[in-house]
From TrEMBL:
Species classification: Eukaryota, Metazoa, Chordata, Craniata, Vertebrata
Name by which UniProt lists this protein: UMP-CMP kinase
Principal cellular location given in the protein's record: cytoplasm
Localization: Cytoplasm; Nucleus
Known EC number: 2.7.4.14, 2.7.4.6
Single GO MF annotation: ATP binding
Function field: Catalyzes the phosphorylation of pyrimidine nucleoside monophosphates at the expense of ATP. Plays an important role in de novo pyrimidine nucleotide biosynthesis. Has preference for UMP and CMP as phosphate acceptors. Also displays broad nucleoside diphosphate kinase activity.
Binding residues for a ribonucleoside 5'-phosphate: R62, K84, I85, V86, G116, F117, P118, R119, R163, R174
Catalyzed reaction equations: a 2'-deoxyribonucleoside 5'-diphosphate + ATP = a 2'-deoxyribonucleoside 5'-triphosphate + ADP; GTP + UDP = UTP + GDP; GDP + ATP = GTP + ADP; AMP + ATP = 2 ADP
UniProt-listed GO biological process terms: 'de novo' pyrimidine nucleobase biosynthetic process; pyrimidine nucleotide biosynthetic process
Gene, per the UniProt record: cmpk
Length: 219
């Protein structure tokens, strides 16, 4: 019956589009917190225990920066070193593509941890423009951590990360960007009752115990 109903349609519509239309709407958790709060560390642990795909906006931007044919390599490089937020047109396309590719490979993978996004008003507007109605934002997982702890962790990471922004000069700018641009986004979601806050200044395992409790409750 279903085959008959869709028989004509599937002859005209490309099969990929047909498959996409059958997929679940992406379920998104935004993961925010200062630089070095432990977003990436905790997302890796979540992926081990829950059916989520981890997409880090920073990782996607660094991969795009490294792509030889990219027209944005230099721009991304400058923004990252200066601790500034890359224009959302670039970031949202990377996120959208990564989400689509994940779901096309396995339609059961429709739960995403979007780490380090939205980091400012521009990011949020870009998400609303491109993704409105196409994905559900369940909540914001907020890793709350003092600036000094964040800086110390990034400096420690900088000994081996090879990142151009894990140095004191870039970190001061990144903290400023976090306080001026990202905190207001967290506050905005807080007013909507959509923030789940975890004290991220403790050990990895203690933080994860709280993260697990949030996800066990909320999916
Ligand atoms: P983010 O993605 O928020 O920038 P990371 O997960 O990369 O942060 O963590 C930054 C650095 O701090 C890494 O070197 C990581 O190993 C370390 N780290 C992460 N969580 C903790 C923690 N709870 N306690 C101590 N060090 C941590
Ligand atoms: O999250 P992460 O620490 O990997 O981000 C590193 C840098 O990538 C940020 O300081 C910023 O320059 C850039 N970035 C961005 N927009 C995002 C996420 C990261 O411009 N949404
Ligand atoms: Mg990270």
């Amino acid at each position: 019956m279903i085959c008959r109903l869709f028989g004509n349609v599937s002859q005209r519509v490309p099969s990929l589009l047909y498959r996409v239309s059958l997929m679940m709407k992406p379920q998104v958790v935004f993961v925010l917190g200062g630089p070095g709060a432990g977003k990436g560390t905790q997302c890796s642990k979540i992926v081990e225990s829950f059916n989520y795909t981890h997409l880090s906006a920073g990782d996607l931007l660094r991969a795009e920066r490294a792509r030889v044919e990219s027209e944005f390599g230099q721009l991304i490089s400058n923004y990252i070193k200066e601790g500034k937020i890359v224009p959302v047109e670039i970031t949202i396309n990377l996120l959208r593509k990564a989400m689509e590719e994940t779901m096309q490979k396995d339609e059961k993978k429709f739960r995403f941890l979007i780490d380090g996004f939205p980091r400012n008003e521009d990011n949020l507007q870009g998400w609303n423009t491109v993704m409105d109605g196409k994905a559900d934002v369940k909540f914001v997982l907020f890793f709350d951590c003092g600036n000094e702890v964040c800086i110390d962790r990034c400096l420690e990471r900088g000994k081996s990360s090879g990142r151009t922004d894990d140095n004191r000069e870039s970190l001061e700018k990144r903290i400023q960007t976090y306080l001026q641009s990202t905190r207001p986004i967290i506050d905005l979601y807080e007013k909507l009752g959509k923030v789940r806050t975890v004290d991220a200044s403790r050990s990895v395992d203690k933080v994860f115990a709280d993260v697990k409790a949030v996800l066990d409750k909320e999916g």
